[in-house]
Amino acid sequence: MLIKTVIATVVTTYIGFSSFALAASPAPVFTAEQEARIGELAGAYLLEHPEILVQVSQKLQAQQTARQQMGYALNVIEHQEALLNDPDTPVTGPKEASVAVIEFFDYQCVFCSRLAPAMEDVMKASPETRFVFKEWPIFAQRWENSEKAAERGVAIWKEKGAEAYLTYHNGIYHTGHHEGELTEQDIATASAAAGYTADKHPDVKEVLERTKTLAQALGLTGTPGLIVMPVKNATPEKITVFPGLATAEQILSAVEKARH
């Protein structure tokens, strides 16, 4: 399929006919013999210049990425109120922040664990940015502490605030325990470090369910999922979505794009 696409692209470029023109023409532009010969010439040319295959493949991939980003961005704009202003979602940073970084994550996700140090670096490098933490325990059916850790995070946020939540959040990741390794003792230790000692814990399952629904509406299929966007007057051009891992440099670059 790729070869056919590449050949079509090369023929379009070097012969000068668009696919639209070919489709719209009332009669064939080329005879069957001419079309066969063009295919032979294009194939021979590609064999002699294989770098064109790489260039065309890169262009097709870039176009696909751009379409994907546009789809994500339109979904973000549609759901920006839930992304930015949910009172049950942990958030840190100044209220007057112009840019928000929103992370969908699971404490048992190995890739979220790899992202955590980068997120700490971004928070230190960009203290004027708002950071929103969407607890999305997608591995809850496999590892029950996935959901327990998420529930505790929301509970700490609601009862103790942003500073305590960050202490807990980073404390969980600092254990280095993921993919079933996180224990109840890990959760208890991180909770105690955050100053959370409540005997009765609030029921926050509805909050987690809401986050799951939101993630699916955005088109996210797993964790981590990062969204960088302006807090006000967001446009697709200023929104960046990372449906997976990202480096601190990539996130900071997206913050700058959202800010200007």
Describe the structure.
- The two termini are 40 Å apart.
- α7 (144-160) runs antiparallel to α8 (162-174) and α8 packs antiparallel against α9.
- The chain has eleven helices and five strands.
- Residues 1-7 and 9-25 have low confidence and may be disordered.
- α6 links the parallel β2 (99-105) and β3 (130-135).
- The relative contact order is 0.14.
- The protein is 58% helix and 9% strand.
- The chain has helices at residues 2-15, 19-24, 32-48, 51-78, 80-84, 110-125, 144-160, 162-174, 184-193, 205-218, 248-259; strands spanning 91-92, 99-105, 130-135, 225-230, 240-242.
- The longest helix has 28 residues, at 51-78.
Nutshell version of this structure?
This protein is α+β, with helices and mostly antiparallel strands.
Topology, element by element:
Elements: H1 2-15, H2 19-24, H3 32-48, H4 51-78, H5 80-84, E1 91-92, E2 99-105, H6 110-125, E3 130-135, H7 144-160, H8 162-174, H9 184-193, H10 205-218, E4 225-230, E5 240-242, H11 248-259
Parallel strand pairs: 2-3
Antiparallel strand pairs: 1-3, 2-4, 4-5
Give the number of domains: 2
- The Cα radius of gyration reads 24 Å
- What is the assigned CATH homologous superfamily of the largest domain? Glutaredoxin
Order of strands across the biggest sheet?
1-3-2-4-5
Characteristic terms for this protein:
single chain; 260 residues; alpha+beta; Glutaredoxin; 2 domains; 5-stranded mixed sheet; 5 strands; 9% strand
